[in-house]
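Subject: for your reference before the review

Hello V.,

The reviewers asked for a structural picture of the protein, and I figured it would be easier to keep everything in one thread rather than splitting it across files. Below is the amino acid sequence we used in the manuscript, unchanged from the supplementary table.
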Amino acid sequence: MEQSEWNFPKPETRTEATEKQYLKHAMNAYNACYRALGRPPTPGELIHDFASRDHEHAGSTIRGRRLGLRLYLDSAFRDGTLNKIQYVGLSQVLEGGPAPRPRNAPKRGAAKKRKAVRDEWIEKLLGHLAASTAPDDLFLHDWIVFTLQFFPRPSEWPTAKVALFWFDRPPMWCIRFVNGKHSNGRAHGDHRYLALARELHDREPLARFVDEVARRVWAAGSFERFRDRLAARLARVCRQLRIPRLSLYAFRHKGMARAKYQMSAVEVAYAAGHATDRTATTHYARRRTGAGGPDPVFSVPESQLQKIRITGKATFDVSPRPALGTSAPDMRP
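And here is what came back from the structure prediction:
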C-alpha cells in the first residue's frame, strides 16, 4: 500500500517552508483515510473522512490539516477533477468539522510513551527476566538489551538484517533497518546501516535475535499481534516487580538518551532514522537521562552522515566523549 504516492499540489504563492507544512498535514489526513478504506480515496471520501473524525485530534492539528486539504480542493477544482457544485459542497464539509479533542482527554499514542526510564528499573527488570523460567522472558530480555543498544522503533525490528554490506570500501558488518516513517518524509531514507563495533566480536547472538523476531512475527500472524503480546508480558512483569509500567518504545528513548551522551547530534539522528539533527532534541528523552550508560556497540559510516539535514538547533552538538570511529570494523567472515 503506497500511501505516499499521493501527488499533493504545491501552491505557487506559498513559501517553500509553508508548503512543506501543508503537505505534511494533508498527507497525514490522506494516509488516515487510505488506511480506513484500504485503497486511495476520492476527493469526496477524503474530505468526509476528515470531517467525521470528531474528538480525535487537537485543534492545532485540525487547523493544519484543513489548510492542506483546502489547497487540495483548490487544485482539484482548477484541474477539472471537481466541478463547481462539488467544490462548494466539499468546501462547506471541510469547514464544518471535525470537533477537536477536549484538553482534559486522556493522553494517547506518543504522549504516553515514558521518556525518563531509570537505570535501577532496567537493572531490576533485566535481572528478573534473565533468571526467569517463564516462556518468552528470555526473549523479552534480549529485546530490551538490543533495543537499548541500537534503539530502533519496535516496528523496525522485523525489518532488521545482520550482514556484510558493500556500500563502502572495505565492506562493513552492519545491522540494517528499514526506516519507519520514511513514506512521509520524516526519515533520511529507506534504510539505515549501523556498523558493528570492533568490540562486538560475536555477532551470533544479535543475528539469532533478529531471526527469532521474524519467526515470532510470522507465528503471530501480524506484527501488531506479536507486539501486543510482548507488551502485555512486559506490563505484567513491571507490575510484579513494582516498578512503573514501561512500554516497548520506552527503551528506544533510553537508548537514544545514552547515545546523545556519547555521539554527535548528526550521528544520533542517522542511527535513529531521523531526517534532521533536531528531532531527537525535541521529541525524545533528554540527554541527561542517558548519563553513565555503556559505550555504543556501533558506529555510523562516514558516508551516511551526509543524508542528515543540519538545522543547527540540536542541543547536544558536541560529544563529551569521542564517538566510535567510522572506519570499517575489523570483522571478516
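For the response letter, the relevant points are probably these. Strands lie at 161-165, 172-178, 191-196, 298-299. The CA atoms of residues 89 and 282 lie 40 Å apart.

Happy to draft the paragraph if you're swamped.

O.
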